[in-house]
Amino acid sequence: MSGPTATSTPRTELTHRRLYDAAKAALLKIFVHPYASACELYCGTGLEAERWEEAHIGHYTGIDAADSGIADRREAWESLRKCYTTDFFQIDPCTEEVGSHFVDNDNQADLVCCLQHLQLCFESEDKVRKLLHNVASLLKPGGYFLGITPDSSTIWAKYQKNVEAYHNRIASMKPGIVPNCIRSESYMITFEVEEEKFPSFGKKYQLMFAGEISGENHCLVHFPSLIRLAREAGLEYIEIQNLTEFYDDNRSIFSGILAGSISNFVDPRGRLLPRSYDLLGLYTTFIFQKPDPDAGPPLSTPLLMNRNQFEEEIDMNEWRDEDLVIPVEPAPGLGSVGEMLTGTEQMWETLQYLHKPTCMLAELV
């Protein structure tokens, strides 16, 4: 496979940005109801202000670690004729406490989103834990934490296939030497360290799309650790869904967002073109909910093991989120995201799923 080339620059860059922005907007349309209170983490690189305006929210809180990010977002908001209130705070939610900036529970949000930054928090367990505890403190009971992040399952599976092909092709290769990159005509992914293990935290890589001068530095998101730490923070796991599946479940919403340019990304039957599929498949949604004790029975979630047993028995090579969907009664105004499992028998299927091999991803260390 060839790497990114200059000739593919305009089309690839346009496809990547448009599809990614459309996915963010679609997620917003599904989960944000009129007059909702929304909080956006790392808002400087988040959703366009116009998208929030179209959602008719009641209040917006923007949080970002960089002063420039806050300034840019405040300027964008002030240019709109909005009928709701806004607050902005310069805080790094993966290293600082945000609770001191909110006087009472009236400032808690119906929705907290993180559309660009979750993967950077996976530099260490402490950062992810701090982020999720901050999210829990920001959310009202019954509120959702959601966003989009690079799909480490897909990325690592591609890498493992590359390593396997390399081993098969070079029988006389030296032990311990493995390729450190994935190439396609649209992007290149380069890992910082050449290794065949997927650690829970700190696995760094660079993602560079065709035509871009510099790449994006990320860490792989270890999904079992994300679910475990979210549970510790009091957040119930709802769904993690690759954006290709998310597109299939919400084609009509995407069609409305992409409007006249939809034919650039899909075939006449509405299926993603190969390049669109490849680019969109690099990302996934994640959705959690803060339980509301006054809203009836609590959400049912996988009974995760203790940490030692969890790390021994759940192998990332066998973890995939095609079936692991937790039953939840949608709040008023919210659309459906994926197919929700219901009933005790299906909960047992979920528990059995944690031990069922479904997709080669990575090994825990």
SSE diagram, text form:
Layout: H1 9-31, E1 37-41, H2 49-54, E2 59-64, H3 67-78, E3 85-90, E4 109-114, H4 118-121, H5 125-138, E5 139-150, H6 152-169, E6 181-183, E7 187-191, E8 204-209, E9 216-219, H7 223-233, E10 236-242, H8 243-249, H9 251-258, H10 274-280, E11 283-289, H11 307-313, H12 344-353
Parallel strand pairs: 1-2, 1-4, 2-3, 4-5
Antiparallel strand pairs: 5-11, 6-7, 7-8, 8-9, 10-11
Task: Please explain how this structure is put together.
With 365 residues, the chain is an alpha/beta fold. It has 2 domains: 273 residues, Vaccinia Virus protein VP39 (Rossmann fold, 3-Layer(aba) Sandwich), CATH 3.40.50.150; 64 residues, no CATH class. Helices cover 35% and strands 18% of the residues. The chain has 12 helices and 11 strands. The strands form 2 sheets. A 7-stranded mixed beta sheet has the order 3-2-1-4-5-11-10, sandwiched between helices. Strands 6-7-8-9 form a 4-stranded antiparallel beta sheet. A hairpin with a 3-residue loop joins β6 and β7.
| Average of the residue pLDDT scores | 77
CATH class label of the largest domain: Alpha Beta
**What would you say the CATH architecture of the largest domain is?**
3-Layer(aba) Sandwich
Tally of structural domains: 2
Q: Quickly give the structural class.
A: alpha/beta
- The span between the termini is 31 Å
Order of helices and strands: HEHEHEEHHEHEEEEHEHHHEHH
The CATH topology of the largest domain: Rossmann fold
Q: How many separate helices?
A: 12
Can you give the helix content as a percent range? 25-40%
Number of strands: 11
Strand arrangement within the widest β-sheet reads: 3-2-1-4-5-11-10
* Radius of gyration using CA atoms only: 20 Å
- Stretches where pLDDT is under 50 for at least 5 consecutive residues are 1-10, 301-365
